[in-house]
Amino acid sequence: MQKIYYGAPGTGKSFEIDTFLKSEGIREEYIFRITFHPDFSYSDFIGQLLPTVIKSGPAKGDITYDFSKGVFTQALEKSYEDTSKDVYLILEEMSRGNCAAIFGDIFQLLDREKAGLNKGYSKYFINNNLIAKDIIALSDDRVKLPPNLHIIGTVNTSDQNVYVMDTAFKRRFEWEYISTKPVKNSAGSGYENNVNIVLNNGTADKTVKWIDLYGVLNIFISSDRWLGLGEDKQIGQFFIEFDMAATADEHKKQVKNKLLHYLWFDVSQSSYKSGVTLFDGSISNFASLYDSFEDGKKIFSDTFFDCIDKWEQNCL
Questions:
Q1: Which of 48, 53, 114, 245 stands the most exposed, by the fewest C-beta atoms within 10 Å?
Q2: Count of alpha carbons within 13 angstroms of residue 193, beta-carbon side
């Protein structure tokens, strides 16, 4: 398996992976996990030679260079220990790293045999004696991925502007979209992570469920009728992970400190549409947005509140 789960932030991509691993009964010793970031490199991923001071014996004090294994090499070794056991290499936030540079020559191994005796093994090998030297199953320095080594990644669509993956890399993975559609609770009677949010509409306080608020936001953000920013700027149900046992004031604080920052800097500042605004005309900067919400004043535009009313009437 080589799969990438992608979607808006907070849609539960990592949760989807964890749910799958639990359903398969995969023990932690067979799971290797890393998060990509702009400074993450090939050496971090594969391994590198690092100096080590000899602490005892005749050569005490001398410096030697040993290969410090990266997460890829650790997962590969584990998978070759017993090819009947599935091993999973989980790569979080892949678009935040330069995948072409991180994978380097490992990219060659991502093509797998589709049938025959070698089904699931890499079609092509690479020569790398540092990776191969501790893997007994490899008789020389020719490295291939075995069929029991699975690579699963996550990609936030809103992070595509960090590092864009090239087509050659993309097509070696199966891509599964995780939508912004809300997830129901285990009882099926309601939704996960759903709390009340109080908003002032200019005349009175209006209580809106989180599921409804983020749903309206996604339509307002993406639709050409309003901001027209597309799906890249949408958010998921778990964009804010509410503590269901917390107070309403604590829920409000989470909205203020997480959602408002995103809506102002990543959404509102990205829209060039005239005549359509997410926020009320009285909001001129982030400080006034932050303080107005804290004081229970109106922060969203009449147009947005009209969308909420239509959503509640199933007319949006």
A1: 245
A2: 17
